[in-house]
Design a protein that fits this description.
- The chain has an eight-stranded parallel β-sheet. A six-stranded antiparallel β-sheet has the order 20-21-22-27-24-25. Strands 1, 3, 5, 8 and 9 form a five-stranded mixed β-sheet that branches.
- It contains 15 helices and 27 strands.
- The chain is elongated and about 90 Å long.
- It folds into three domains: 14-109, Immunoglobulin-like, CATH 2.60.40; 129-498 and 507-534, TIM Barrel (Alpha-Beta Barrel); 537-616, Golgi alpha-mannosidase II (Immunoglobulin-like), CATH 2.60.40.
- The chain is of the alpha/beta class.
- This is Alpha-amylase family glycosyl hydrolase.
- GO terms for molecular function: hydrolase activity, acting on glycosyl bonds.
- Keywords: Glycosidase, Hydrolase, Signal.
- Residues 131-528 form the Glycosyl hydrolase family 13 catalytic domain.
Amino acid sequence: MKKALFLWGVIMSFSLGGFAQDIAIYPTNWWVGMKNNSIQLLIRSTNEDFSSDKVLINYPGITVSKTHQFANKRYLAVDITIGPKTLPGDVLIKLAQNSKNWEIKWPVKKRPSGLGTSYAQGVTSVDFIDLIMVDRFSNGDETNDRVAGMLDQSLNRKEMYDRHGGDLQGVINHLDYLQDLGVTALWFTPVMENDMPNRTEHGYSITDHYKIDARYGGSEVYKQLGNDLHKRGMKLIADIVYNHFGSCHFLAQDPPENDWVHQWPEYTQTNFREQPLFDPYATKADKKKMSNGWFDKMMPDINQDNEYMANFIIQNSIWYIEEFGIDGIRLDTYTYNSLEFANKCNQAILDEYPKMSIFGEAMVHGVANQAYFEQNNINTPFKSNLPSVVDFQSLYYGIIPALTQPLGWTEGVNRLYYTLSSDFLSKNPMQKVLLLDNHDEPRFFSVVGEDVEKQKIGYQWLLTCRGIPQMYYGSEVLMKGFKNPDGYLRSDFPGGFKDDEKNAFTGQGLTEAEKANQSLVRTLANYRKQSSALTTGKLMHYIPVDGLYVYFRYDANQTVMCVMNTASTAKAVDFAKYDERTEGFTTARNVVSGEKVSLSDITTIPPMRMWVLELNK
């Protein structure tokens, strides 16, 4: 890269011979008292080659076990161990290179308090996640809309793939709204630096793993956001990418060796087919193309078989959690990784943070296909240790066909029943992350033909089914959009930007339908917080009959009955048919409307409606 790289916020090295030298070290710091105390430092000079790999550290408790020089002489790898009695401080690293000597300060910090309680506490079925694209949510600081020297200087809200100016301060400004809505955890698409020429609004083309993008406010604002969330009893989820980085990353532009990313004779994209990874009849060529092919021309595919590259990713993942107080991790493009490496990285994170929740993006087709990538009950040669996945099966082959397909033996709401019935394949279905839409999927309101009642059913299902519900910013107020041709599924949150005529934070300009859906989400999500049945209870469901699907969430203290009518006509509700769960109950409260009724007075449910009923004796 043409621009100089400095060690982020910490050091400028110097030469005793008077020659200034810019040197960066990754990770940029570490902590005492970590289980992972054997660290591989990647030292990079941006100006001059290292003439040898001689490195001296004279700091009590820290030992150097090995050094390595690469074909690219601007890099060194240094393996160190941070002993249990090491005290926090600035470690002086000396590089003696012939007639030149460089000294670098590398910080070793004291760990923050509250491990497992105030941070790294995990995201579970008691939570309700909101997925936010920071650039599209709210502009809280217009001074960082453009940052001098960065390659993407676009700022045009009329162009969907330009930057729009949203930032982390904008999120901080609206935490009251999110908490009032019932949200307990925030997941952002990556906020690491994406210094690419264009299409940087999504965050997945990382160019520096140790910087928070300045256009979002930088690391201090990100830390403030995490602290503010934790003070509110809310949680922070990081979107981490094992599989690729941006083509302007220094490891792509100036790699230590040629094998840090997968190389092909000509550009080769992944085949986007997960089947060769478990297909007993698959070819090696198809498997290689799936795992080693590039996701995009601007996203070089990381070679995780390179031990130095693998260490870089593993250490960065742990550093990120510790530095910013992360509570849960969503892993992007999980199926495209070396699965052996993914297991290794997952385990390193879980060893350091036993309560950490990790869920992978396994955007595949087929319940068994999805289960292969998570902890499962399938007897296969490869066994994944990934605790959870984003449950695309319950979306693609569950709630969408339930509300959009005509009823058939395997169609309509029967598809939702069949899909949930396959949970026996998974070790822990309660850890699956449910969704209606996200930054890659069409807005659910558009999928269901902008039918307000179907949208309401979608949210009632999302907040009552097993697992961890995940909302996509703005869908609570009926935001719509498909991925192609215009990408409106990533539109701006109404009210998050100056001069917006519609404001979902205050209700200004919202239609009655938008207000009603927002109110439904708020009511049900806040009820869910206090409902043991919905957060940690069991699930029991009955075979759908003529479009009527009835399921229960229950435990020893509470029973919630969910009645979903996907038919075009009203359906009779006979509580005696569900006596395994309804016996002994005489009344119910409709959680959404607040209405209290006698079960004997309930006879029919209107077409395309859903009830969430708390049963009482």
